[in-house]
Amino acid sequence: MANKREKVILVCKDCLSRNYTTSRNHATVQERLEVKKFCKRCGKHTIHCETK
């Protein structure tokens, strides 16, 4: 059986730097992932969203 998890890159909404990678199950989660994480470039916690 094939693995349905795919790698996604998270980008900061404020400074647009690509800081984090994670995986998500494409079969169950259709919308884009948004997580609040620490951005090293901004120096604060910001919303990071999935890139295209």
Automatic annotation (TrEMBL):
<dbReference type="GO" id="GO:0005737">
    <property type="term" value="C:cytoplasm"/>
</dbReference>
<dbReference type="GO" id="GO:0006412">
    <property type="term" value="P:translation"/>
</dbReference>
<comment type="similarity">
    <text>Belongs to the bacterial ribosomal protein bL33 family.</text>
</comment>
<dbReference type="InterPro" id="IPR001705">
    <property type="entry name" value="Ribosomal_bL33"/>
</dbReference>
<dbReference type="Pfam" id="PF00471">
    <property type="entry name" value="Ribosomal_L33"/>
</dbReference>
<dbReference type="InterPro" id="IPR018264">
    <property type="entry name" value="Ribosomal_bL33_CS"/>
</dbReference>
<dbReference type="GO" id="GO:0005840">
    <property type="term" value="C:ribosome"/>
</dbReference>
<keyword id="KW-0687">Ribonucleoprotein</keyword>
<protein>
    <recommendedName>
        <fullName>Large ribosomal subunit protein bL33</fullName>
    </recommendedName>
</protein>
<dbReference type="GO" id="GO:1990904">
    <property type="term" value="C:ribonucleoprotein complex"/>
</dbReference>
<dbReference type="InterPro" id="IPR011332">
    <property type="entry name" value="Ribosomal_zn-bd"/>
</dbReference>
<dbReference type="GO" id="GO:0003735">
    <property type="term" value="F:structural constituent of ribosome"/>
</dbReference>
<keyword id="KW-0689">Ribosomal protein</keyword>
<dbReference type="InterPro" id="IPR038584">
    <property type="entry name" value="Ribosomal_bL33_sf"/>
</dbReference>
